[in-house]
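pls design
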């Protein structure tokens, strides 16, 4: 763009009408006024926690369901109402919500317990260095001075346990026995369905005295959710017929994920806005879907170890060269060895490379099918798991990350 033109560009941009009335409504962090299709779960959570208002300890409760099924939203909705009521009635209730995925706050046992200790008045806790016992002691001392009833919501607790091991769960189950004045009620939330099943029976009976399942939404339910939000987000008549249904259908394909559905609608809206058009059409949803898909793949690839990135780059390279021709582990190995030389890395054995290929297959980035080559034994036939059009961009990203 020629210098100076950018000013006109921005002025032009401002003078154009936008299809959005209030784009914020489509952001994941926005709290909607209504929460369709979660009445049952919200009532259940509220019913379990209500005794806290009378100063009695509620049962610990565990919520589970796949991502985007409204767990966080529903819990926040309930505790928000509890908090307000407790405030107006001056009840001795303290509610803490923590997302265990938050880096530096709650992603290790040390960090989680020290964050909690700080929350309960222990201001001078070093960010590292104390023994776990000591951290717990400070936390218990702090919390036992406070209000009688505490509700501790630990969102995405599966992430913490995956990273830090399940000892933390045993430690949490023991806390109440050591407190004199305060009672803690735990609300655990997990996106991983297996997590709940795999819990040690002792932990389960203590931390999940009650459990509540959040089933995935079906396409019609997603439509209701989207309609509510779209009404506020877009100007009247800026969405064509069928757009919401298409979004819902796409998001329901894997599992009914409201986050994915909202992302699709927002990204599609942004595409329309950027193109300076005035109507969101069904075709925009297709574009948005492939954009989101590509961004997700890119994110996964960016976090892979170097050796896996090299393996992937070799596979993409072979695709560029061979087109749709079939190729095998041995072909990848040759290309991969050349790449290693170029970056001064020592190549892994072909056997180890074959493991990396299997991992890439599990992540859904490529397809690897085991085939028999007669007396030469078995090998993997490798195919793409994404449209060929996204390969050039991925190759250049990989080259950048690998410094090639
Ligand atoms: N029933 C619903 N009504 C309105 N919005 C919803 C509903 N369920 C989920 N959402 C929205 O979808 C997104 C993901 O929901 P969230 O509660 O974070 O899911 P989870 O915690 O189960 O992964 C959020 O933006 C949330 O506002
Ligand atoms: Mg959540």
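designed seq:
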């Amino acid at each position: 763009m020629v210098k100076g033109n950018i000013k006109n560009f921005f002025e032009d941009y401002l003078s154009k009408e936008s299809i959005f009335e209030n784009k914020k409504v489509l952001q994941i962090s926005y709290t909607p006024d209504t929460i369709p299709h979660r009445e049952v779960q919200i009532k259940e959570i509220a019913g379990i926690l209500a005794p806290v208002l009378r100063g009695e300890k509620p049962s610990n409760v565990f919520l589970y369901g796949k991502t985007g099924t409204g767990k966080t939203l529903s819990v926040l909705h309930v505790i928000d109402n509890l908090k307000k009521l407790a405030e107006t009635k001056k009840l001795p209730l303290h509610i803490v919500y923590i997302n265990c995925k938050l880096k530096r706050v709650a992603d290790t046992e040390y960090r989680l317990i020290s964050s909690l200790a700080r929350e309960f008045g222990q201001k001078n806790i070093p960010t590292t260095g104390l023994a776990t016992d000591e951290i717990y002691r400070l936390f218990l001392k702090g919390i036992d001075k406070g209000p009688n009833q505490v509700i501790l919501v630990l969102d995405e607790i599966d992430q913490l346990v995956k990273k830090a091991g399940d000892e933390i769960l045993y430690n949490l189950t023991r806390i109440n026995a050591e407190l004199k004045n305060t009672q803690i009620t735990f609300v655990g939330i997990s996106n991983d369905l297996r997590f709940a099943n795999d819990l040690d029976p002792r932990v389960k009976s203590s931390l999940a005295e009650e459990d509540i399942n959040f089933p995935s939404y079906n396409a019609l339910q997603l439509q209701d959710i989207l309609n509510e939000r779209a009404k506020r987000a877009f100007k009247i008549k800026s969405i064509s017929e069928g757009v919401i249904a298409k979004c819902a259908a796409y998001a329901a394909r894997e599992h009914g994920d409201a986050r994915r559905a909202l992302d699709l609608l927002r990204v599609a809206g942004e595409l329309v806005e950027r193109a300076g058009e005035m109507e969101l059409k069904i075709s925009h949803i297709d574009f948005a879907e492939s954009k989101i898909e590509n961004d997700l793949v890119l994110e996964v690839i960016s976090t892979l170890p170097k050796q896996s990135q090299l393996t992937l780059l070799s596979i993409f390279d072979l695709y560029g060269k061979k087109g749709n021709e079939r190729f095998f582990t041995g072909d990848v190995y040759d290309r991969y060895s050349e790449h290693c030389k170029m970056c001064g890395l020592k190549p892994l054995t072909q056997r180890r490379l074959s493991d990396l290929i299997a991992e890439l297959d599990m992540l859904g980035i490529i397809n690897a099918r085991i085939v028999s080559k007669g007396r030469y034994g078995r090998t993997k036939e490798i195919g793409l798991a994404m449209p060929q059009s996204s390969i050039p961009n991925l190759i250049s990203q990989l080259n950048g990350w690998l410094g090639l």
